[in-house]
């Protein structure tokens, strides 16, 4: 049940740090405060997502460890990394990279574009007398708004791009196979699932629940760190 747990643990920690950190870095680098903010910030968000995709080998190893047909071939995270590096090529680690870059980049554009407006709207619903109370209660209200905002956006965005994950996982579950386009993989999956869009979203409910929690917690922690230390 916990096979392949280590790669996502490492990836999630590094992923969010890269996502928030590089987004701010790119905005300063390209001077988004001086240019058209919407276009510049969207571009920086996409770049941050593409930078996140450098962690593709971790998702690749996770997919292999959790694929039934590879249970006897790959024992654990370290063994999988060694085996791919020794018997195949570095290119195998980055199977599905383009899909990850598109998924992360587009997700970041939506998240960073909608995050602050949604958060501000939630805070406006707070009674003025409560908001002006002591700093502890005010901090809790802001953290709750960050959690709701992050969880809602994370759940919706991850569901929107769920089919990309389905295609990516199929591509990354094979070893030493021909590198074929994501479009052909999608057509194969749709054929297997009788062309049903609903079948393409199989498992999306669980993914939504997980995303609500992870994105809510991540966004609330990020908001807390920004308020307290920056």
TrEMBL record:
Organism field: Meloidogyne incognita (Southern root-knot nematode worm)
Pfam families: Mito_carr
GO CC, any one term: mitochondrial inner membrane
Keyword list, A-Z: Membrane, Mitochondrion, Mitochondrion inner membrane, Repeat, Transmembrane, Transmembrane helix, Transport
PROSITE patterns: SOLCAR (PS50920)
Keyword tRNA processing among UniProt keywords: no
Name under which the protein is recorded: Mitochondrial carrier protein
The UniProt record lists the keyword Iron-sulfur: no
């Amino acid at each position: 049940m916990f096979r392949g747990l280590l790669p996502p643990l490492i990836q999630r920690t590094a992923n969010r740090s890269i996502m928030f950190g590089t987004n701010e870095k790119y905005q300063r680098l390209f001077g988004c405060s001086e240019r058209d903010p919407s276009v510049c910030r969207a571009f920086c968000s996409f770049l941050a997502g593409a930078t996140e995709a450098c962690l593709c080998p971790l998702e690749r190893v996770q997919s292999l460890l959790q694929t039934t047909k590879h249970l006897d071939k790959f024992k654990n995270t370290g063994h999988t990394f060694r085996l791919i590096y020794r018997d195949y090529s570095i290119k195998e680690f980055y199977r599905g990279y383009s899909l990850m870059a598109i998924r992360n980049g587009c997700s970041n554009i939506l998240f960073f574009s909608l995050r602050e407006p949604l958060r501000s709207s939630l805070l406006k619903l707070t009674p003025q007398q409560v908001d002006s109370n002591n700093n502890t209660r005010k901090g809790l209200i802001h953290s709750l708004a960050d959690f709701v905002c992050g969880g809602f956006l994370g759940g919706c965005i991850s569901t929107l791009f769920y089919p990309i994950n389905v295609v990516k996982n199929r591509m990354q579950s094979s070893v030493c196979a021909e590198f074929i386009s994501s479009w052909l993989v999608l057509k194969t999956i749709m054929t297997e699932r009788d062309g049903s869009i609903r079948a393409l979203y199989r498992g999306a409910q669980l993914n939504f629940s997980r995303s609500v929690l992870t994105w809510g917690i991540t966004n609330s922690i990020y908001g807390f760190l920004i308020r307290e230390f920056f």
